[in-house]
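Q: How would the structure tokens look for this protein?
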Amino acid sequence: MKLLVSITSVALVILLSCFSQADAQQLEAAKKEGKVIWYTSMGVDDSQPFGASFTKKYPEIKVEIVRASAEKLLNRMLTEVKAGSYLFDVVTLSGFEAHIAQKQGLLGKYVSPESKVYPKGFKDPEGYWTDIWDNYYAVGYNTKMVKKDEAPKSWQDLLDPKWKGTFAMDDEEYEWYAGMLEAMGEEKGKNFMRTLAKQEIQWRKGHNLLAQLLVAGEFPLAMSYAHRVEQQKKRGAPVEWIATTDPIIVSLHPIGLGAKAEHPNAARLFIDFTISKAGQQLIQSFNRTPAHPELQAGPASNLPLYPISPSVADRYKKYIDEFRAIFQRAQ
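A: Here is the predicted structure in token form.
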């Protein structure tokens, strides 16, 4: 038995030594590459300090940032690749655009050692991407207008007649609709939506605006992003969001390696940094909701999160048409 333990210990030391050598070799290769080109939909106010933090940790590697909306970035990538150029090393998009990029062969496989803590749904099973920040679709309420024990505890509670005409939401909430039908099932989900449509919803445009109007008391309930409500709370506003007993629909923002990255080692190192707990804490400091499972946001832990599958993009038009028909929202 002692001999077996000794052999196992030696094998473990050798294995760890091999990993350390591989890490050191990748780091040296990344330093020689000298930079990483990051295409991102993250705002400039956040992406620039994030890139600077990476360079502070790895001074030999500069981060060149190309910032635009996810849709514009995807179109740019497709145009560049069509012209024979792969100018991006790493890309951060919304879930749907990431799925399209993957289908078009724009992403390469990379399973970061940091990704092992991320649960199913928050990383691609084939290794093409890992989620880095989220938008939680959550019902917020004005605490001056609604008492905590009277606030809805589930999606079904919104169907109570007492909330008729009091609930506001975005008039293009297509992604949430798709996620709810995935989580509930098509038949149950559509029945819920048809009943919700009879609740005389107060329609507005934009989750930030909804959070602001909720603070102002224009309505007692509104669906916004949880982090928008959290931002208002930190400013002293009388608002809270509900950690429902039902699935909380989550919109993903994955990061992936460029299929033909010119600086592949620096790109992998950047991905490792981004999805590490330290990188995720930095994202959290930007008032975003990090995807790392140990940094879950909100008034409760172990939230029933339901990440929207990026593959929903393949059926997105169907969901848009259904949403408009059910809620009678004209294009």
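The first helix runs from residue 2 to 33.

Residues 135-250+302-327 form a domain with the D-Maltodextrin-Binding Protein; domain 2 fold (CATH 3.40.190.10).

Upvote if useful.
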